[in-house]
Amino acid sequence: MRTLSKIKALIPDSKEVFIIMLTKRQKELLELLMQQSDFQTAEYFAGQLGVSKRTIHNELGSIDEYLQSSGEYLEKKRGVGIGLKRFKEVEVIKEKNERSDIYDTFNRRIEILNILLFKEKVVSFNYLSDIFMVSKTSIIKDFEFIMKILNVGSDIKLCSDVHGTSLIGTEEDVQKAMLQFNRYLLSNSEIYLDEDIAEKIKLLNTYYGESLISVCSNILYTYIRENVNAISDYYVQNILSIFIILVHRIAQGYHIEAVSYTHLDVYKRQIKYLLWGELN
């Protein structure tokens, strides 16, 4: 597709998974998944679409990758079936019998992610329990939820020792974890505002910096206006999110190790040059 080729050329390091398009059958399968209130077996979906179970499993792989861009995922239970789930705070939940007026559950989890992923701090359950004024049990549940989000497509892990708990992983793991953070935050943005992508993306200012977000947005939107006739907001948000992460990590001196010198290295140098030129 001509339009997608232009966009992919803008970010050589992005994986195909980030801009995957669904086939007609995959869309039909996704619609069936969305209609279910509970788990259904692959055999059930195969019967509905008139294909084999093997075909259903193959299609589910593509759908699962597609869903990662929207904060959703497929949960598979052996002997039970497949269900469509969403990393989403449906409502603002208050901790019962605790002083939770400062941080609701969603905001607390976002701030914990900020502390671990962006500030790269080593923390203890007692420390987090004190600053958020909730029980350690609540913090443990927060960590379980957070790791479900970060581990979609990433092998980043929690490491605990006598000094406390922190996140560990390769640079690729960190960047993928940041992408999941962005998706989680933006998918819940209607809690705060009902605006277009240009406004929603400003929610990332706190974590990447207002100037960086502005520069990345201007570069991408200028390119799209000049080179692309039509592209959905869904893909623009996803590409912009990846772009922001790459520039942010490059500006901090991080990069994914490569075996050889590639066009990506040239691209990163150009982006860093453009960024500093805009910021200074």
Quaternary structure: single chain
Overall 3D shape = globular
Number of helices: 13
Percent of residues in helices: 55-70%
Please tell me the overall pLDDT: 77
Largest sheet: 2 strands, antiparallel
Q: What's the alpha carbon Rg, rounded to whole Å?
A: 20 Å
Which class of the largest domain in CATH terms? Mainly Alpha
Q: What's the CATH H-level homologous superfamily of the largest domain?
A: Winged helix-like DNA-binding domain superfamily/Winged helix DNA-binding domain
Structural account:
- With 280 residues, the protein is mainly alpha-helical.
- It folds into 3 domains: 2-86, Arc Repressor Mutant, subunit A, CATH 1.10.10.10; 89-186, Orthogonal Bundle (Arc Repressor Mutant, subunit A), CATH 1.10.10.10; 193-280, no CATH class.
- The protein contains 13 helices and 4 strands.
- The protein has helices spanning 2-10, 24-35, 42-49, 53-67, 105-118, 125-132, 136-150, 171-187, 197-200, 205-208, 210-227, 233-251, 263-279, and strands at residues 72-77, 81-86, 157-161, 164-168.
- A two-stranded antiparallel sheet has the order 1-2.
- Helix 5 crosses helix 7 (136-150), helix 6 packs across helix 7 (136-150) and helix 12 packs across helix 13 (263-279).
- The model is unreliable at 1-19, 89-102 and 259-263 (pLDDT under 50).
